[in-house]
């Protein structure tokens, strides 16, 4: 799956697995869940920024030598899929303090699992730029595809969208890749499968509920 050119799976280091071990544990408290999730989110966002175009930019070092460097060549903004996507905003603002962040409110219907779009509010000039689309969970891919459609309707080019996912199911990656083959997907783990309730296995439960502390149970 990660051999797909549009999918960037973070290197599966022991360190990353140790972070996942904390957040996957159904008994993790909200403090441990948020702290360790944020460390993974930081890695995801840095990897997402690496997907943007760069231009050469030399600097002179303190010893008078030239460092042949790079800087981003494009304007970037972010769009968070409410609610879980908002969990990525704090880390993003730490990395990129001035970044503009649009919102798209999409909720899965509890019975049908189909996404429903309620609201969007995007930066006015989003059409010309590159977009980090913050959507931690890619299960069926329905919510991500609905959010991508909102961006396309606003004039964003498909190849300028980088989807930042905490975890993804193969089914979700396939759904996004089939519908929007030029969207880049950055993800920290690809799960085994979806279960009959369209939840990921082994999964992490309801990311939004666990991050914001709105559930009594980590299992979903
Ligand atoms: C969850 C999750 C994603 C979506 C993924 O959102 O945060 O947005 O489901 O599922 P899909 O790929 O099958 O569409 P939910 O609607 O539960 O809202 P939440 O963000 O408030 O938890």
From TrEMBL:
InterPro entries (UniProt xref): PRTase-like (IPR029057), PRTase_dom (IPR000836)
Cofactor: Mg(2+)
One GO molecular-function entry: GTP binding
Root EC class: transferase
E.C. no: 2.4.2.9
Residue ranges of every copy of the Phosphoribosyltransferase domain listed in the record: 11-214
SUPFAM superfamilies, alphabetized: PRTase-like
Signal peptide region: none
Family: Belongs to the UPRTase family.
The protein's name in its UniProt record: uracil phosphoribosyltransferase
Organism: Nonomuraea zeae
